[in-house]
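Quick entry between incubations.
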Amino acid sequence: MAIRQLASFAAQRTGLCWATPLSGQASTPLATALRAGWCKGFATVEEGFKYATSHEWAKIEGDTATIGISDFAQSELGDIVYVELPEVGSEVTKGENFGVVESVKAASDVYSPLSGEVVDTNQTLTEDPGKVNTEPFTDGWMIKVKLTDPSQADSLLDSAAYGKHCDENAH
Amino acid sequence: MTRQSYLTRGFADDASLSKTPLYDFHVEIGGKMVPFAGYSMPIQYKDSIMDATKHCREHGSIFDVSHMCGLTLKGKDAVPFLEKLVVGDVAGIKNGSGSLSVFTNEQGGIIDDTVITKVADDEIYLVVNAGCREKDLAHIGKHMEKYKSEGGAVDMTVHDDRALLALQGPAAVETLQPLVDLDLSKVYFSDFHKLDIAGIPCYLTRTGYTGEDGFEISAPNDKALELTKKLLENPRIRMCGLGARDSLRLEAGLCLYGNDLDEGKTPVEAGLTWTIGKRRREACDFLGGEIIKKQLAEGVSQRRVGLVSTGAPARQHSIIMTMEGKEVGEVTSGAFSPCLKKNVAMGYVEKAYAKAGTELQVSVRGRTSPAVVTKMPFVPNTYYKAPTTAS
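Done. Structure below.
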């Protein structure tokens, strides 16, 4: 994931704005943005899920994974106002961007923790993007993916390791 | 893919950043500090930008805007000197009042926007943008040197010894009134007073940049925290960061220098023709006056407009297109409006598409969404204006 907000805030020479010099595309990983030292809430970590260091989670059931962003990520972003998701049938690749979440000021790319084919997307987020804030690990899920290689999950963090990762990010 | 390098190396406590007198207080109450125009400033506190924006419009908020640069021009020629550099009718401002204005360059482009207050015939108080400070001071200084060498009487003082707070929102008056010996019901939008607030010698201007009624208060640095805490005694008042400040000014249709205004745009293109006083329009005897005079007579090819769009929020640099896909402009500021719950933006479009109600499209990450040219402010302002008969 990537936050345009802070990035462009810095780029902004004068005024208040931090909407990115994005030319429609630019973005910065959330993990990078989080190093800017935002204060911490009390983000939770869901047991049994797998996590990417870029703050996405995967709930793996057989050869299918449900994917979303973590409580830590949503609490850092603030109120989510728009979610952009891929088409069912498209391919996602581990470590590559598959969608965008936007808060009041930030547009952030979401990276897929695993590779595979998108078999379902959470259409309720179109009408109610705030679900990503309120239920990041359940109703706020983003896509379901039929995995190309379920063993890719071995390289992801478990909940304990991800919790530690968040603590290290927290200032 | 553009990444700003500061994110990986620059922290808000970076030693190279300046701090306002309220820095420790911001940190203490949970401010998320970010680098901004050379200062470490709170982007938000513990409440979200959404909540903080709404709170200001429903109750009231204090913004630390001490990074902005206050300065005074003094001398019997202060007014004629300043009129060479700005488009406003400074001589026509009544003493103790003020106006938004802009500094122009030789091409009529906007060097900065500024709030000018005519304290007295020989005293002008201005506030300029933090990010433009150095170039503004150099610009004023250069022209002042020449002006003085030709016998003009004017001097400049930069108020680095003073902090600036903005108290904004419907609860601003009830918060300030008990602390001053002045009937605020007689103090109108843009009015200026030097007075004691809770015993602290301040400059008070009934202005702000949120679209709400409110005040900007210049106080000595060493009294800024005491004053802030005094204002916060009203439980309706909260500290508010730059994040919500940006939402508020955009909802109010107010320009942000560096986004919506720059040296390549004239006040006519920017929809700020109203800042050019009637007397100034006829003479156009300020920098770039000839170009602006021509634009006033013949019109301009592009204009700043407001846009309301659906889909993904159109942010700065999003392309504005016709329904047929012809590119006609670019967004200069855009965000989701916390108060209106929809995407609002401003940008520049070709004149033919600038009329309110014109249906256009915005392109965000390669996808287009419908957008409608919309009159600004998006959220009606609540300035406390003098009854027209009284002014």
